[in-house]
Design a protein that fits this description.
The chain has helices spanning 3-14, 21-31, 37-49, 88-98, 114-117, and strands spanning 53-56, 63-66, 72-75, 82-85, 109-110. It is of the alpha+beta class. The protein binds zinc ion (2 copies).
Length: 118
């Protein structure tokens, strides 16, 4: 992995707020002041392609997260805030129904957050 990719990956590993490209860029620049936005874009694309990083689906803007801790995302349709959820039971239920092992899943889940509900 190149130093730039490593820097971008480290930013993702250190972030638990599902940053977008601009946020990753700002954080990467603190470590590597001469990194360009284009490099951050390309590094993220490479990291997603090579499964180090996931791009969260079903959102207007691209948000990123580490891939090494399996979990899913629930996003608020009003403000776009993203929460982590895991549902091991669902995986197990599907496996029980199919009699097969689920390799991975990709679901979009939406739930209006507490702030938007007020
Ligand atoms: Zn909300
Ligand atoms: Zn997440």
């Amino acid at each position: 992995m190149t130093t730039q990719r490593r820097t971008v990956y480290d930013v993702i590993l250190a972030s638990n707020d599902h940053p977008d490209v601009e946020t990753v860029f700002k954080r990467a620049r603190k470590v590597m002041p001469n990194i360009s936005l284009t490099t951050v874009y390309r590094s993220l694309a490479w990291l997603v392609e090579n499964e180090f990083v996931i791009q969260i689906k079903g959102l207007a803007a691209a948000h990123f997260d580490r891939s090494d801790i399996p979990h899913s995302h629930v996003s608020c349709p009003s403000c776009g805030v993203i929460h982590d959820v895991s549902y091991i039971d669902l995986k197990k239920q599907i496996e029980d129904q199919l009699g097969r092992t689920v390799s991975h899943y990709d679901l979009n889940i939406y739930c209006t957050c507490v702030k938007c509900d007020k």
